[in-house]
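>> received
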Amino acid sequence: MNPILVDVQRGGSVESQHRGALAVVDADGGVVMSLGDIERPVFPRSAVKVLQALPLVASACVISAR
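>> returned
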């Protein structure tokens, strides 16, 4: 089981806890530090939408919403 990474507190009491895994890698992809099961597959879904937009921003593509 992955470790608790975040405690959400309200009024001095822990309202919820969130578990997760993380890895810090160097420029060559070598793991410098890790917590939890970093080999477990993940399904990021909408969390990566900002990253998916980076190529458009980098290419200076402008989309107008009219």
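>> The mean pLDDT is 89.
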